[in-house]
Specification:
By secondary structure, this protein is mainly α. The protein is built from 18 helices and no strands. Helix 2 runs parallel beside helix 7 and helix 4 packs parallel to helix 6.
Length: 489
């Protein structure tokens, strides 16, 4: 059943993968390293702002939709959150513009930040609709709307870089246009769902009490994995920040797409089970979820480390050399961060103990900033990577201990052991390939990936790692009647 739910979100994740790799491959070629560095700083700033201002509203939509359905109060639930999101978006953007004007920021960075902050202030309305669709299990509507907006925004952003003088600001202008074009259609649909509802102040208090700690926690979490860009920019310059961000995105973003894919399918189901059937049912879902995450993410991280040099052709030459150096280590960091963010942190959401989520991140963030200040001047980009890995390891340890005090989060030890063994066999098979005399590139990447995937899948099927035979069965049921599947058989 979980496999079918994950497959239902396939269009969304294909769009995410296309834009993730497209952004890295195209922007690192169309933009100069320093321009890409400005773009990276703007993206991180935009994410910080969005998490600080809007995430609590989105989290409330996701967490309380099932309860509103059970109580027959969906219209008021939606109207309350949409009105709050619109109000914060307008006021927040005005305040942010006033703050930016007070700082001595160069005109280039100021323009990029303006469009970035404008896009995230508009994004909240679109995101509320997406969270409502997912929580209500309107998977088809969510997939079509989200995928269309993602692809339209990305395409327009690239066109604006090519044919306008916007440069690093162009991707954010593309997002704004995509939100207007696609988001307006979804708003009309959601407006009909709000009919008869009322704005309820008491709901706002409940939602804020639940979501505010999540905002703070997400800010700390994002500081843990992104604050080093600011430090690299300040210590080494925008071009070095561009190199680091390119390698970080190519490795980490590839993993994050996979984590988000599984999480967006399972999290709503776990919340609904918690509301309707209690803790035991949600634990059953979470156990399978954790094993599935490991089954998908561990070999993916191993694969990225194995093909980092071969994947360098994806990046522009201006950022390539520094990026491929950090990628294997970023893959490890991304794996730890993904398991923490998309599995361990879900326990805080289900238990409602979101304040503990915040405290789990305080010490790792302090350690990360301190290590970056010490290691970057001495070891440059690798210093930032090592600081990230050490901080993530501490963060996931603290989070697991605190989360399990209030919610019996299952730890899939057996699945982890099986998957580690299968991944090791995959790595050995790839490393034994006679490719030493070949120049790393597209052909070696495809060859290594093909061999690695085949060895891993066969090994997993042999031991039924993470109960993967059920996932494969769901895959066959969904695509088994297609001409391609019949030809393969």
């Amino acid at each position: 059943m979980m496999g079918k739910s994950i497959l239902a979100y396939l269009p969304v994740n294909l769009a995410n993968m296309l834009t993730a790799f497209g952004t890295i491959a195209i922007l690192t070629r169309l933009l100069e390293p320093a321009e890409f560095g400005l773009y990276a700083v703007a993206v991180i700033t935009m994410q910080f702002v969005h998490m600080g201002l809007f995430t609590w509203v989105e989290a409330a939509m996701a967490r309380f939709q099932a309860r509103a359905e059970r109580e027959g109060d969906v219209a008021s639930h939606l109207k309350t959150l949409y009105r709050v999101g619109l109000l914060i978006g307008i006021i927040g953007f005005s305040i942010l513009m006033a703050i930016l004007s007070a700082f001595p920021i160069g005109p280039g960075l100021l323009l990029v930040l303006t469009f970035a902050l404008a896009s995230t202030s508009m994004q909240i309305i679109f995101n509320l609709g997406m969270e409502a669709h997912r929580a209500a299990h309107r998977i088809k509507r969510y997939s079509i709307t989200y995928s269309t907006q993602t692809l339209v925004s990305f395409t327009l952003g690239v066109l604006f870089i090519m044919f306008t003088p916007l440069r690093a600001s162009a991707p954010f202008v593309g997002i704004i246009c995509g939100l207007i074009i696609v988001g307006s259609v979804d708003v009309l649909f959601m407006w009909r769902q709000m009919r008869g509802g009322e704005f309820q102040t008491e709901k706002v208090k409940t939602y804020f009490a639940y979501g505010a700690p999540l905002c703070i926690g997400l800010l700390l979490s994002y500081a843990l994995n992104s604050a080093d860009i600011y430090l690299i920019t300040g210590i080494m310059g925008a071009a070095s920040a561009g190199e680091y961000n390119a390698g970080y995105n190519l490795a980490n973003r590839s993993l994050e797409v996979l984590f988000v894919w599984v999480a967006m399918a399972v999290t709503p189901a776990a919340i609904t089970a918690m509301e309707d059937d209690g803790t035991e049912k949600s634990i059953e879902i979470m156990k399978g979820y954790g094993a599935t995450l490991l089954w998908i993410a561990v070999p993916a991280a191993m694969g990225i480390a194995l093909v980092s040099k071969d994947a360098g052709f994806i990046l522009g030459e201006g950022v390539r050399s520094g990026a491929v150096t950090v990628m294997p280590w970023i893959a490890l960091a991304g794996l730890i961060n993904g398991l923490m963010t998309y599995y361990v942190h879900r326990a805080f959401m289900l238990s409602g103990q979101t304040k503990k989520y915040v405290w789990a991140l305080v010490l790792p963030v302090i350690l990360n900033i301190g290590l970056n200040l010490i290691l970057i001047p001495k070891y440059e980009l690798m210093g930032a990577v090592w600081a990230t890995i050490v901080s993530y390891a501490l963060a996931i340890t603290i989070a697991t201990i605190l989360a399990r005090r209030d919610y019996p989060l299952p730890l899939p030890y057996r699945a982890a052991f099986e998957i580690a063994g299968c991944s090791a066999l995959m790595a050995i098979a790839v490393l034994l390939l006679p490719l030493n005399n070949m120049t790393p590139g597209f052909f070696t990447l495809v060859l290594k990936a093909t061999v690695g995937i085949l060895v891993y899948i066969l090994a997993c099927l042999a031991v039924n790692a993470a109960n993967c035979r059920v996932f494969i069965r769901d895959l066959r049921e969904r695509f088994g009647k297609s001409p391609l599947a019949e030809a393969a058989e």
